[in-house]
Each structure stands twice: as C-alpha cells, then as structure tokens.
Amino acid sequence: MRNLLAALFLTTTILGYAQQKTIDQKVDELLQKMTLEEKIGQLNQYTGDNTVTGPLTINANKQQEIKEGKIGSMLNVIGWKYTRQYQELAMQSRLKIPLLFGLDVIHGYKTTFPLPLAEAASWDLNAMELSARIAATEAAASGIHWTFAPMVDISRDPRWGRVMEGAGEDTYLGSRIAYARVKGFQGNKLGDLNSVMACAKHFAAYGAAVGGRDYNSVDMSDRMLWETYLPPFKATVDAGVATFMNSFNDINGIPATANKYIQRDILKGKWNFQGFVVSDWGSIGEMIAHGYCKDGKEAAEKAVLAGSDMDMESNAYRNHLAQLVNENKVPLSIVDEAVKRILRKKFELGLFDDPYKFCSKERQDKALSNPEHTKAAREVAAKSIVLLKNEKNILPLSKETKTIAFIGPMVKPKRINHGFWAIDLKDIDSTYIVSQWEGLQNKVGKKTKLLYAKGCGILDTDKSGFKEAIEVANQADVVILSIGERFDMSGEAKSRSNIHLPGVQEDLIKELQKTGKPIVILINAGRPLIFNWTADNMPTIVYTWWLGSEAGNAIADVLFGDYNPSGKLPMSFPREEGQIPIYYNHFSTGRPSINEDKVYKSAYIDLPNSPKFPFGYGLSYTTFKYGDLKLSKTKISSNETLEVSMTITNTGKFAGEEVVQLYLQDKFGSVVRPIMELKDFQKIKLEAGESKTLTFSIDNEKLSFYNQVLEFKSEPGEFNLMIGSSSADIRLNSTFELIP
Ligand code: NOJ
Fold first, then answer.
1. Of 579, 604, 638, which residue is a domain's last?
2. Does one domain contain both 330 and 399?
3. Cβ neighbours of residue 638 under 8 Å, at least 6 residues apart?
4. Distance (Å, rounded) from C-alpha 661 to C-alpha 726?
C-alpha cells in the first residue's frame, strides 16, 4: 500500500512538472492567439502625463488604444495610483496583456542619491549597488517595472551635459560600475517585489558625440568602439541586464537605431542578449531628420530589421509596421521575435499572474518612508565628495568654531541638490532634501554662530551682493563658499561650449580672499568644471557635485571630519576647453611631450598637456604610504596569473579610506597601446597608523586588447606595472614579461 501511494505521489509530481509550462511555452501560446495588430501593440511605447522627458510626438487617445491592445508599455507614469489606473485599462483589452511601466530612475526615486558621475567618484561598488537597490525598492513599490538606467556611456568630453549620468571616462571603472548598478536594480531576480528591470543605455557610443554636443554624430574606428565604448555594455549583459536602449547618434553614418551591426550582430548575436531593445525617445522617427530615411515607414522598416524591438514615442511601428509586414518588407518572424522578447520579460516579472503586483499603496508608503534609505543616501553622498585641495589643513573644521559664514548661491536652495534627473513625485511628498544650510545647522552646536549671504546668483553679472558677503565674511572665523553651475546646466540636452565657473562667482571668491579669512570652497556641478584661478589661489577646495536628498548632511559630515573624504575623480578636469577630449589613457604619439617639452613635440604652445586635476585624483585628511611591492613572477605565460602584492599604511592622524589603483602599460604592441590603463583597484579603510597588504591578480584578460583584426588577445612582451593614488601619482613601479 505504501509503495502504491509513493508511486502515485511520484507520478502526480512528475505530471505536475510536465504541466508546468516554461516561460517560452507560455509566450509561444500567447503569440498564437495574437493578431498582427496586437503584436505590434506590444512594440509600442507611449509617454504618460506625469512628467515629460522629450518632445511629444504622439497625439493619440492613449486610453482607448490601451483598451484595444495597441500599447505594450508606458513611460513617465508615476506612482501606484496612476500605474494601477493604466493597468486597469490594459485588463479591458482582448488578451489582457499587462503594460510595462518604465521610468528614468537614474539616481534615486524618492530618496535621491548623488548623480551617477558623483557616485562613480566614490569608486565604491557596494555603495553604488546599494543606491541602485534602494532606488529599485522605492520605484517597484510605486508600480514601476523598469528603469532606464544605468547609462554606461564612456565619455571623455565634459562639455557633454550627460556626463553627469555615467561613470566617467574610464572603460574598466565604467564596466565594474555598470555591472554593480545592474545587480543593484535587478536584485536577486526579476519578479521580486523590490526589483526593477535595468536598461543599459545608450547603445552605442553616445558619449563620443562630436564636439560634446548632445545628439550629435559619432565617428570612430571599430577598434576604439570595441576597446573603449563597448565593454561597459558587455558588463551589463554579463550582469543579466533585462533591456537595452539604443542611442540618438549615428555611428559612422548609420543611426544606432537602424544599426544592424550594433544591435543584431554584436548585442543579440555575439553577446547572445536575450532581453529586448527599446529605441530612445523618438529615435526611430528622427532618422528622417538624420537624412537616413525618407519617411516614418522607411524608418520603421530599418529600425525593426536592425533589432530595435520597442518604439518609444515615434509612432512609427504603430503607423507602418502592419503595412510593412503585409508588403513582405518586414518578415513576420522579425515582429514575432521582438514581441516574444517583450512578453518574456512580462512573464518573468510575474505580471500575467498579477498585473497589479507592483502597485500597492501600502508598500509604496512604506518604501518611501524608510529611514534606512535616508541613512544610505547620506553615506553614499559623503563617499562621493572629492577633496581637491587642503593645503593649509583648514579642513576638517572644528565643531567649536565660533562664527561660520556660509556664503553663495547654492547655500539655501533645496531642490538644486537633487540634480538633473530627480523625479517629481507629484502626489507624494518629494520635497525631502537637506539643504546645505540645514546640513550645517544640524552639525554645529548652539555655541556656533552661523551667518549667511548669497553673494551673487549663479549666472549673474550683478555684483551688488558682494558687499553683504564681505561684511559677513569679516565677522566670521571661517568662510564656506558654495558655488558652481546650476543643477540643470548638466543633463540631457545640456551641453556647454564654455565649462568655466559661470557668472561672477570667481570674482566673488577674489573679493572674499581679500578678507584674509580661511575660506573653504565647495563646487557643485554635474561635470568637471574649469576654475583655474580658484584652483591656483585658494588652498581648500571640495568638489561636491550634486549629492541628492542628504546633500547638506553629507557635506557637513565631510567638512567637520565625521567622514574623511575618499572620493577620486572619475574624469580628468581640463585646464581649458581646448584640451577636450582629455583622458589619461591616451596613446604616446611619436613625439611625446615629456615634462611639458614643447619643441617639435605633441603639445600645445599655450597650455600644458596635463589636466588641471587628473583621473583618479582625490585627497584625504590623512596620508597613505605605499610600499613593499612584490610580484609573484617576473615572467608569465598567457595561461598563468601574476600575483602582485603591496603594503599600504595610513601615516596620518585620521582613519581613512584609500583607492589603490593598479595601471598597466603594454610597452609595444601590434597596434599602439595607451600610456597606462586602469586594470584593477581596491578601496580599503585603514585606522591611523594601520597597515594592510593588498593582493591583485593579473590574468591574461587584463593583458589582452583588440588587435588589427579585432581579435581580443594578449601579445608577448614587456609590461609596465604602476600602482598609485591617482593616474598622475604613481607610487610603485615594476615590469614583467609575458612570454610566448
Ligand atoms: C531620452 C534620453 O536620452 C533617455 O536616456 C531617456 O531614458 C529617455 N529620453 C526617456 O526619458
């Protein structure tokens, strides 16, 4: 009897498994039921009305179209209530296919974190994963399924306003960060209530727009594309990213949106990416203005054939795809493939089991008022701050300081600290921001007197506020001056030809300097700015970027030494715009300018070649000594790993963190190699006086590069190994040889 029962149990279990359909089977079954119109509907994405993130191109009755199954996804619908309302409409459609809700959750949802570029300055992968995790938790609780992040575009051009949204100029650092951010957004798995789909964007090479002008063309060699611009995208695929977004630019004459090589051959082919690709806002329709397609119909044809699965706000698939299929210009199999990729994600998210699973008032309320999120925002913000100068050790300030004058246009406003991509949450209280003034108030005790003057506006030419600022400064023991560019002077469509400190802010610094008071300069910006006079004449400079909800507290933590700054620049800061593009890992040229030698050398006669502040640079309140470099071998073959160890000691008075950076140079190659390339780093914390031994592993991948025929391979020969505190502050050197 027992045996019989066991056999029965086994049979039912096996049958149960057999009945459990895989997602692919469910997708196929659903596809069978769909009309061509319904299929095309899944490829169609419209914007909602809660926010606008591009030029509106569609004049449609969205509600009706959703009910007719003509829309597969919406962006810019924010909050549990609105996502629910739209989803209810989708549930009235014939096949009840749920909508996907996407949103630019770039650096936080309600709790805003530092700009991505600022966070990159932390070089703290755990911190960046955590900030993405928290953003996902908050957004997912509000009905959002999908963030259009991370932006993983490498950029060597600080004129480009979107540098604020990426990880800076370096491919290795950018790839590590890209991986961490995807993991953060997607969590353990899609379908978990605190996970959102990530979207690697903008595919590809958007960060190399000519002249740093947004939406501009890109002209680059295949080798540069593979070596410098593609690896962060590949890292997102390795991290399991659910979606990709293509880019507005053309690459060597072919718009990315219609670029088969980029989307089909590389992404879906070589990299075997199984998710779907969404166009950028209107980028399918914009191929007409590019001069690449004569009308919307041709644009739809070229985009879908090239592998753009979803049409964001162009109307091109909605208006033309059916006709293109009927005319046999687009095979039905291409449409089916795109639909399947999208449906698969809807199944993975669990939306067919419960289309409303992500929109819950209760969960939203809870997620948006979690004190742990605020705490993390403060910590990540402090880690993102970069100490550029502290010559007279004015910092950290004493909490006993009697009178502090806090001056400048950035001191009192709140909203600016959010930075460009902050989300306006409408019904939800999204005003929670600690201003810089409030942060200082929170920090000092009752005995410290705080004085304030605005001094000037950000873009003003008016100097009438200087007088009050000088008066206030004269009464203080220390002056803190908060200046920079407006928060919306970086971001999408915010390229600048002149990236100097705007307005009369530098004049204000000059006037305040005359008071003889110790002055701490805070520079707020979404990109590297140029501020040569300040850099040369002011002893204490802190680069604060835009730090998010907890900006004020985080700045105060650093100013008073409750957090010892540890940020390192993820981009080179130019001396003048004329040096751009500027990046540390350039080639040597046949006439390198050594020690700024200019005679028949590759140099500017009116400027040094070096940046004002180099990649990887940033100070601490303590000092670190590097020593004891040891290599496990001096010769290795390509199947071996070289172990490199070194000792780092905190030689100052404060506990602190250091980012130990390892660079390599392949001295001679079948194609020329950069003078140095970041290949590893470790961020470690040391108590005052403490030493630690760090070990790095160098395997064949770190020695490989794309050769003339685009094979990724190492070549035997000599390598320089450099370990340092920045790309321009190498403390330990050695060489080793790769043998055949
Ligand atoms: C255009 C931007 O380039 C892209 O990054 C963003 O995700 C979309 N607009 C949607 O807002």
1. 579
2. no
3. 700, 703, 714, 738
4. 7
Q: Is-contact 151 162, C-beta < 8 A?
A: yes
**Single-letter amino acid, residue 360:** S
Q: Is 104 in the pocket of ligand 1 (CB under 6 A)?
A: yes
Share of the chain above pLDDT 90, in %: 93
606 lies in some domain: no
Q: Answer yes or no: do 572 and 635 share one domain.
A: no
Q: Whose CA is nearest to atom 7 of ligand 1?
A: 148
Instruction: Tell whether 23 is covered by a domain.
Output: yes
- DSSP annotation of 142: B
Burial class (CB in 10 A: 0-12, 13-18, 19+), 343: buried
User: Helix crossing, 171-186 with 125-141: angle to 10°?
Assistant: 40
Per-residue tokens: 200: 């690697």
Alpha carbon distance 292, 202 (integer Å): 19
Q: Is the pTM of this model over 0.85?
A: yes
What's the confidence (pLDDT) of residue 422?
A: 82
Element spanning 383, H or E: helix 371-384
712-717 long-range Cβ contacts below 8 angstroms, 24+ apart:
712/226, 714/638, 714/738, 715/666, 715/669, 715/670, 716/740, 717/666, 717/667, 717/668, 717/669
**Ligand 1 in reach of 181 Cβ (< 6 A):** no
Same domain, 259 and 353: yes
Low-confidence ranges of the chain (pLDDT < 70): 1-19, 58, 426-431
Reported as a single tens digit per residue, the pLDDT across 440-481 is 999 999 999 999 999 999 998 999 999 999 999 999 999 999
3-state secondary structure of 393: coil
Q: Which of 202, 214, 245 to mutate to test the pocket of ligand 1 (most atoms within 8 A of CB)?
A: 245
pLDDT at 432: 84
For 483, the domain range is 379-579
CB contact burial 702-725 (16+ within 10 A = b; e otherwise) = bbebbeeeeeeebbebebbbbbbb
Pocket test for ligand 1, best of 202, 244, 281, 310 (most atoms within 8 A of CB): 281
Same structural domain, 522 and 638: no
Instruction: Verify that 355 and 385 share a domain, yes or no.
Output: no
Q: Are residues 46 and 71 in the same domain?
A: yes
Domain-embedded: residue 38: yes
**How many domains does the chain contain in total?**
3
Q: Are 203 and 347 found together in one domain?
A: yes
Cβ of residue 280 lying under 6 Å from some atom of ligand 1 = yes
Both tokens assigned to 371: 């004190």
Q: How many other CB atoms are there within 10 angstroms of residue 371's CB atom?
A: 7
Rounded to whole angstroms, what are the CA distances from 542 to 158, 569, 619, 666, 697?
Answer: 18, 12, 10, 35, 34
Residue 15 sits in the same domain as residue 162: yes
Distances (CA, A) of 64 to 60, 86, 178, 576: 9, 11, 38, 54
Sign of the alpha-carbon torsion through 232, 237, 238, 241: positive
Q: Exposed, middle or buried: residue 429 (CB in 10 Å: 0-12, 13-18, 19+)?
A: exposed
The catalytic residues are 280
Cα separation, 590 vs 313, in Å, equals 49
Q: Which H, E and C letters describe 415-439, residue by residue?
A: HHHHCCCCCCCCCCCCCCCCCHHHH
- Domain assignment of residue 591, yes or no: no
**Residue 80 in contact with residue 142, Cβ under 8 Å?**
yes
Tokens of 126: 């755990």
